[in-house]
Amino acid sequence: MVFAHDVEMALQAATVLANSALEPVTIRSPAELATWFEDFSYTGRHDEDDDELAAVLDLRGELRELLTASRDEAVVLVNRMLAEEGALPQLVRHDAFDYHLHAITSDAPLRARIRVETAMAMVDVIRADEMSRLGVCSDDDCEGVVLDLSRNRSRRFCSTACGNRNAVAAYRSRQRG
Ligand SMILES: [Zn+2]
Ligand SMILES: [Zn+2]
Fold it and tell me: Counting ligands in written order, which one lies closest to the CA of residue 141?
């Protein structure tokens, strides 16, 4: 593990959410957002309605900007997100999770909690000087965000589909060569 479990979960959640704006679009309904919520162990308020969905999907541009920013740019974005949401770090223990930081109350709207959770996770990335764990997909035609949490930093593509497509292309060009 590169970062603490809850940090990695928040980074993965933000990456999947940011990439859900690209084809194939993966989050289009409250039910699909609910699946994302469960997959990444989000807890607390979850309205499961169209207003919540629209507010969350509207965040994707900001998340993408943050996840692909330089270290100094990311600092500006993180500080702004935490200030705008009135973040106040508190240690909490709930469900199966031992003490960890929450910086916003669990009854705040999901959009606000995603902003704070992602910003708090990026605090760890920035402090550890690990921004190189984040980047853009190596596929020439893909703008997907890549989050590389592998030990040997081997991840270059945003998805299995992009990885496979490029493996096939590389194989074909070797065959021709
Ligand atoms: Zn928690
Ligand atoms: Zn890709």
Answer: 2
Question: Nearest bound ligand to CA 6?
Answer: 1
- What HEC string does 19-34 produce? HCCCCCCCCCCHHHHH
**C-alpha to C-alpha distance for 167 and 3, rounded to whole angstroms:** 29
115 Cα: distance to centroid of ligand 1 (angstroms): 14
Name the closest ligand to CA 139. 2
Determine the distance separating the centroid of ligand 2 and the alpha carbon of 156, expressed in angstroms: 9
User: Helix (H, G, I), strand (E, B), or coil: what is residue 145?
Assistant: strand
At 55-91, the pLDDT tens digits run: 999 999 999 999 999 999 999 999 999 999 999 999 9
- State whether the Cα torsion 36-42-48-54 is positive or negative: negative
Proximal ligand: closest to the CA of 156: 2
Q: Which of 115, 24, 30, 26 is nearest to 67 (CA)?
A: 115
Q: What is the pLDDT of residue 122?
A: 98
